[in-house]
Design goal:
four-stranded antiparallel sheet; elongated; alpha+beta
Length: 119
Amino acid sequence: MKHIFAVLTVCLLIFTVGCGAKPSDYSKAGAKETAIQLVKENIGNRLGPDTAKAAKIKVTKVKEGLTEGRMFVYCTAKYKREFMANGEKQVRKDTVNYSFELQHNGTDWNVRDMKFHEE
C-alpha cells in the first residue's frame, strides 16, 4: 500500500510541475519558442512551407523589457530559395534578421512589434 501511495505522489508531482516549457510559458524560453515559430510562419507565408522547414533559425539575443511581461527577442534566419529568372533556375541564399517585442497576457505571448530585414 505504501508503494502505491509513493507512486501516486510521484505521478502527481510530475503532472503538477510539468515536463518542460510550452511556447506560451511566461519565461525567456517561452518567448524564444514563440519568436522561432513566428519566424517560421513569416518565411512560410512569403516563400512557402518547404523553405520555412529548411530555414536555420538562431535566437541571437533575448532581453527583458522594463515592464513586467515584456520581452525583446532577436533572431537570424538563413535559408536558400530557388526561383526562375529569364527562363533559368536561380538559387539565392538569404539571411534575414528579425526583432520582436512580445507581451505576455497571462496565457500566451502576443506580438507588440515585429520587424525584419534582409542582409
